[in-house]
Amino acid sequence: MKKLIYLVALCFLFISCSEDTDDKLIVQCKTPTNTQFSDITSETATITWEDNNTSASYILEYGVSGFVLGFGETIETSETSVTLLGLGANTSYDVYIQSICTDNVSIQTEVATFTTAAPLVIPEFLPNLSELNLFTENLTDLEPSDRAFIYNLNTTLFTDYAHKQRILALPVGTSMEYVDDGFPNFPDNTVMAKTFYYLNNERDASEGRILVETRILIKKNGLWELGNYKWNADQTDAVLDNTTSTVPITYEDTNGTTVNIDYVIPSAQDCIDCHNNNNTIIPIGPKLRALNGNNQLEDWISNNYLSNLTDVSQVAVLPDWEDAVNYTLEERARAYFDMNCAHCHTAGGFCGDQSYLRLDYETPFADSYIFEDKINIDSRMSFYYQGVSMPLIGTTMMHPEGYDLISQYLDTL
After folding, report:
1. How confident is the model at residue 155 (pLDDT cuts 50, 70, 90)?
2. In whole angstroms, what is the distance from residue 167 CA to residue 141 CA?
3. What are the sequence ranges of the domains in the chain?
4. Separation CA 213–CA 310 (nearest Å)
5. Is the Cβ–Cβ distance between 281 and 272 less than 8 Å?
6. Got the DSSP string for 349-410?
7. CB 133 within 8 A of CB 147
8. 33-115: what fold?
9. Given CB 3.0 to 4.6 Å as the disulfide criterion, which of 3, 69, 143, 319 pairs with 327?
């Protein structure tokens, strides 16, 4: 009898539960899909996603890549798009998104990652070189920012055997414009930087280097301005300082000989004397003919750094003065004159009124006065005496290899 009563009670309980009007099926809250990133800058990024829920809001959590969920920054929104502000430049971020439905929540999305852009180069003479954003965070590496690129010259200026790294930064969305074999038309806010350094051991670059100075040219409102940054003793940054100073340098050359140099950092006025043409500051090195080699101009065109030029064969080539295989003695000597001397010995240059020498590469020999002045040229290049030897500025010693080249050339005239 007791068993019968128990069975009847179970039946009533089952019927009662099955007719409960409060019982209903809860629809699963779906996880957002197709996370996308756009409009990424050095400080911002826009994130969008898709959602198949009937009605939902969202919680977005983000932080520097590798952060632990629950310890990131969170944003609550009813939209399927969010713009993040105040991000760090050149930094990777992880993002997770979760849907919040009426009755429950979704699981979070798989991690989605984006990286912010490099900071914009600042075309100003700020107190420290690091503030210009020309290089990546570890300034000592001299690794150019994504906003800048290295360029090289076929023939280079002699500066007491210092190595040089040359970089150029163009404003976003701009390019240089081809005009002729000379300088392109650089857009305003272009920044040029040339860093001078020595290897501790010329036979082994892995032994490190000594950073000495970084010279800067900035184009503002159609005119070039210059400034000089001196590297600190710790080699961590360089400070704007337009006065002259002497830095003692010791290194081992390719023969293992210890070399001691009292490297002279020029003053701003010294730099102006060399970069002056008709009382206007101009660059010296990056004429297109001096850049036309090793597919450099082709790369500039393909990367939209250089416009108004499609065929680089239109541009002449300034020879490498050290390349005796592909160029004649005269071509090499004229190229050396062009890079080391012509910025002063040209119309409008520092020596333009003091000397009739015209040493630009494209100047016809008959108009250069090299033959007429060859004895004086040989004499003033054969030794070093400050204020007498050539070049007047930028070196504290004669250049034996350069003098040998010029001397051989002059002997043929």
Report:
1. very high
2. 14
3. 33-115, 118-318, 320-413
4. 36
5. yes
6. STTTTT------TTS-HHHH-TTTTHHHHHHHHSS--TTTSSSSSS-SS--HHHHHHHHHHH
7. yes
8. Immunoglobulin-like (2.60.40)
9. 319
- CA 344 from chain center: how many Å? 29
Identity of residue 89: A
Nearest CA to 111 among 56, 150, 80, 72? 72
Q: Give the closest residue to 405 by CA, choosing from 384, 363, 377.
A: 377
Question: What does DSSP assign to residue 205?
Answer: G
pLDDT value, residue 389: 87
If you average pLDDT over residues 150-166, what whole number do you get?
A: 97
Residue in the block written with tokens 């009533």: 12
Q: What mean pLDDT do residues 297-319 have?
A: 97
Q: What confidence tens digit (pLDDT) does each residue in 166-220 have?
A: 999 999 999 999 999 999 999 999 999 999 999 999 999 999 999 999 999 999 9
